[in-house]
Automatic annotation (TrEMBL):
Belongs to the peptidase M14 family. The keyword 4Fe-4S does not apply. The active site is at E278 (proton donor/acceptor). One of its GO terms (cellular component) is extracellular space. Keywords: Carboxypeptidase, Glycoprotein, Hydrolase, Protease. The keyword NAD does not apply. Residues 18-308 form the Peptidase M14 domain. This is CBPM Carboxypeptidase. The gene is Cpm. Pfam families: CarboxypepD_reg, Peptidase_M14. GO terms for molecular function: metallocarboxypeptidase activity; zinc ion binding.
Length: 437
């Protein structure tokens, strides 16, 4: 038994720049948790088609559970099994975070004020199936059932009739069970930060070749945060003869339309802002390039996590100070098709850029409360602005119906078919009000 523990600790002590297959990856994560038990929590959120665990390592001062006021952040890599750089970057990020905690004041404050979830591989079967590394397409992209996991989520724009895969279902359950605020998923095959929406229709501006979310300004900021902190992404250089991306960012739809994508699902149904990071022109580059990739991405990976502290957060309570779950809390002028609601602790988190906003808190059946807030950039302080709401006349626990998994934007498009484009926002707000009722 002692030998086993020593082996685990030695695994945690040195992380080489090489590709770690399933057993090595599991041994590494277990070694890290054994070495840093109070700073980490290791659990599997489900299993792949072939029965491999979908491991998540959680890091933070309170790694085992959500703490009020501390936002939840996640990184997911390797959902396409043959896109491998992100998988190794996340292992090195883990190594960097645990070894810097208590030594580096910035990392220490980051981990004290953020709960960080890291999933190095969402498609372990696809990775193991990729026998011959290739810069371009290989069958390892898909899961064992031959499904592309990044086309497998419910879609807000069209009925994609996907047969939900075990890996997808595990991630959907995970999103439902945590209050994720910010996320990124790591891919390969280009060098760019891509943001929501990946799909679209006339309501979101797809006729102009760009699918705009209500939080487009925030998404552009998030994508630029990554690209400008990366060694070269911001230069917008294309791979081979493929298109270049100004400032190293792109709207997903502008690049190419896809349905059933994970980032749109996070934003619409998970209340979590997610971007897609394409980290390498070559999908599965030689292992001797991994150290260079780590040096290119290290600062960007950390700076991006800090953005979870943008904007405003708080609690909605009744006259006795009890939390009110499922209260709707949104900034005026940026309604979401699936209204953003408080969690079981009555908490909300809204990512917003510095500026003046009116925050609207609504408990169904009661009068809305409006509060004007002046938001500054608090990412350096590791805490968003705090703004609580107390409903004195309410002493009930309202249970809202969960948002339907139907293509919500489809209804908006039908409703606005006869309306000029300038009225799209009005229609959007009307439909949101209908959903509220």
């Amino acid at each position: 038994e002692v030998v086993g523990i020593l082996c685990l600790i030695s695994v945690a002590a040195s992380l080489d720049f090489k590709y770690h297959h399933a057993e090595e990856l599991e041994a590494y994560l277990k070694g890290i948790h054994a070495t840093y038990p109070s700073l980490t929590h290791l659990h599997s959120i489900g299993r792949s088609v072939e029965g491999r665990n979908l491991w998540v390592l959680v890091l933070g001062r309170f790694p085992t559970h959500h703490k009020i006021g501390i936002p939840e952040f996640k990184y997911v890599a390797n959902m396409h099994g043959d896109e491998t750089v992100g998988r190794e970057m996340l292992l090195h990020l883990i190594d960097f975070l645990v070894t810097s905690y208590g030594r580096d004041p910035v990392i220490t404050r980051l981990l004290n004020n953020t709960r960080i979830h890291i999933m190095p591989t969402m498609n372990p079967d696809g990775f193991e199936a990729t026998k011959v590394p290739d810069c371009y397409y290989s069958r390892g992209r898909y899961n064992k059932n031959g499904e592309d996991l990044n086309r497998n989520f419910p879609d807000a724009f069209e009925n994609n009739n996907a047969s939900i895969q075990p890996e997808t279902q595990a991630v959907m359950n995970w999103i439902k069970n945590e209050t994720f605020v910010l996320s990124a998923n790591l891919h390969g095959g280009a060098l760019v930060a891509s943001y929501t929406f990946d799909n679209g229709n006339s309501v979101t501006g797809s006729l102009n070749g760009y699918s705009r979310s209500p939080d487009d300004d925030v998404f552009i900021h998030l994508a630029k945060t990554y690209s400008f902190n990366h060694a070269s992404m911001y230069k917008g250089t294309g791979c081979d003869n493929r298109p270049t991306f100004p400032e190293g960012i792109t709207n997903g739809y502008s690049w190419y339309q896809l349905e059933g994508g994970m980032q749109d699902y996070n934003y619409v149904w998970g209340q979590c802002f997610e971007i897609t990071l394409e980290l390498s022109c070559c999908k599965y580059p030689p292992a001797d390039q991994l150290e260079e990739f780590w040096n290119d991405n290290k600062v960007a990976l950390i700076e991006y996590i800090k953005q979870v502290h943008l904007g405003v957060k708080g609690q909605v309570t009744d006259k006795n100070g009890n939390p009110i779950p499922d209260a709707i809390v949104e900034a005026q002028g940026r309604p979401h098709v699936c209204p953003y609601r408080t969690n079981e602790h009555g908490e909300y988190f809204l990512l917003l850029l510095p500026g003046t906003y009116v925050i609207n808190a609504t408990v169904p059946g009661f009068k809305s409360m409006l509060k004007t807030v002046e938001i500054t950039n608090n990412t350096g302080n590791f805490s968003a602005l705090k703004q609580d709401f107390s409903f004195l006349e309410v002493s009930i626990r309202s249970r809202a119906a969960s948002c339907p998994k139907t293509p919500l934007y489809q209804e908006l498009e039908q409703a606005s078919a006869a309306v000029k484009p300038t009225l799209h926002l009005l229609v959007l707000m009307t439909v949101v009000l209908v959903i509220f009722k």
